[in-house]
Amino acid sequence: MVGQSTSIQSFFSTRTSPTKVIPPESSPVPGDGFTAEELDNALLPVRQDNWTPRIVYDEYEIDALMFGLNRVKIVGRLVNMFESSHTTKLPKGLGGSVHLVVKDDTGAVTIRLSYTLPPTELRLGRLVAVWATYVANGDRGSFPCAVAPLYIKIFPEKDKSCRIRVLEGAEFANLCRKPLNYQPTLMSLKAFARGGSEVIDAKILVVVKSVSARKRVTKKDGTEAYVTRVVLMDDTEEATLSLWDTTSTTPNDWQPSHTALLISSPSLNVSHKNWLALASDTFVDVDPCIPEAERLRGFAGRKVKREHINPTFPYEEYALWSIIKPNERVLYSLADVDDRARETPGETFEGYLSMIIMDLNMTTLRQQNMLMCNECCGIPIYANAKVAKCKHCDSQVSLRVNPRLIGKLVDESGCITSGKLVLSDHAWTRLLGRSAQELIESSASTLKSVEHRMLHIRITLRFWWSEEVGKLVISEVLE
Ligand SMILES: [Zn+2]
After folding, report:
1. Residue 89 confidence (pLDDT) above 70
2. Secondary structure letter of residue 187 according to DSSP
């Protein structure tokens, strides 16, 4: 099983002379039409991992490791990664080195991995197996990670007796997910941002809300670096976590409104509101095995659904309800709908509304290239097209008519503001007198005249209210 997994070694070709190392100037420049991930994949050799241990290694739980042990194997998850100081001069032929903090259910240990080519498959939360020949004590001299005091140095490309291998597959999914010294007294994001970051060993539990595209930026000191920004949330607040260089590819494994992170001792940037980063003593437990994570995921799912810029029409739920619905046709006012939804929460009902269109945004949205929209990876996507590419995951996302196209609707009892309705595709076509495709293809002057025609006319809408959907659903538009 282990043999099928990938390892760092498999990404390196054998080099006979360090002078053959390709200078960084010749690497492809960004913006040549390929994403960073495509470039990484194309530039790396085919994954092959034929390494088998030639000597016997004893497998240890991490808290059983001791200074001076020889030939050990450990299995754990990556809870932190950071590059070794850029100021120290690297030996010839060495591309760099990275500190990995590996944690199992018993303890944590620091691994210093030296490489000639950066190990792109190492990401926070991934399970790794490490074979090493010696365990050192990190207490002496300057040591970067005080929370994981034992220290293992490996350089798999040079030393064939050590190795690091990512373990993937269903059989490994639940291994090493128990947080260390866990007590369910977590700090809320709000408390953390308002002074709680001063508390030693502060722990926050958050869910990933959205992930930005990975960008190359120039830092204050003039050096360039990759960064991915991840928006995190709990039930009190939101925050942005910046993941730099070695950790910037990690969020490719994360799923918005599902991936939970238990972060111990993150650093808080005081100059930006709620900006978090990883410090050398930070631990990030990805999808920790604790009941609070499940509860928070449920909360995040509901919140994200409520805040979605363009929720899907609930075709399935509506079809199920249509089978059992009472045979009645009632004309409501907006105030009636509001009263009924509040008086009998949980009740699902259907009726008709007679509304006047007060405002339309067709020409403005066309100009702003925002006629259609959807979300992917928690990020809004707008375009005057039926599909668009997600900047983070590069997948083609199908777009629906932007609900903000309807500005404001009023009746005698109240009004509905922009973007609050969920229309079926059929209802959109009926309302606009054209399909989504025809809407995109319409010229500015055509849309202007459509707007003029529709403004201040009275329309009858068949609506459906269900607490689970949480928005007024329009299934039909009548003259
Ligand atoms: Zn995406």
Report:
1. no
2. B
Whether residue 30 has pLDDT greater than 60: no
Q: How far is the CA of 24 from the centre of ligand 1 (A)?
A: 30
Q: How far is the CA of 378 from the centre of ligand 1 (A)?
A: 8
Q: What percent of the chain has pLDDT over 90?
A: 55
Mean pLDDT of the 170-196 span: 89
| Ligand 1 centroid from CA 212, angstroms | 9
Q: What is the pLDDT of residue 418?
A: 80
Pairing mode, if any, of strands 349-360 and 331-332? parallel
For the chain, the residue count is 479
| Residue 415: other Cβ atoms inside 10 A | 14
Domains 2-172 and 308-366+403-478 share a fold: yes
Q: How many Å lie between the centroid of ligand 1 and the Cα of residue 426?
A: 27
Q: Who contacts 78 (Cβ-Cβ below 8 Å, separation ≥6)?
A: 100, 101, 102, 122, 123, 124, 125, 126, 128
Q: What is the CATH number of domain 2-172?
A: 2.40.50.140
> Could you list which residues have their CB under 5 Å from ion ligand 1?
376-377, 390, 392-393
Contact 65, 135 (CB under 8 A): yes
Q: Which two tokens stand for residue 193?
A: 């941002």
Across the chain, mean pLDDT equals: 85
CB 179 within 8 Å of CB 14: no
DSSP 133-144: EE-EETTSS--S
Cα of 392 vs centre of ligand 1, distance in Å, is: 5
pLDDT at 283: 93
How confident is the model over 408-417, as a mean pLDDT?
A: 92
Class assignment of domain 308-366+403-478?
A: mainly beta
Are 81 and 247 within 8 A, CB to CB? yes
Q: Cα–Cα distance between 476 and 425 in angstroms, integer?
A: 10
Q: What is the CATH number of domain 189-306?
A: 2.40.50.140
Identify whether the C-beta of residue 466 lies closer than 8 Å to the C-beta of residue 348: yes
* 129-146: average pLDDT: 73
Ramachandran area for residue 419 (φ above 0: left; ψ -120 to 50: alpha; else beta): left
Say if residue 330's pLDDT is above 80: yes
Q: Which of 153-162, 316-325, 417-426, 453-462 has the highest mean pLDDT?
A: 453-462
Task: Tell how far the Cα of 230 is from the centroid of ligand 1, in angstroms.
Answer: 13
- The C-alpha angle 424, 426, 428, rounded to 5 degrees, equals 75
> Above 60 in pLDDT, residue 279?
yes
| Residue carrying structure tokens 């006979």 | 16
Which region among 51-55, 160-164, 289-293 has the lowest average model confidence (pLDDT)? 51-55
Structural domain spans, the chain: 2-172, 189-306, 308-366+403-478
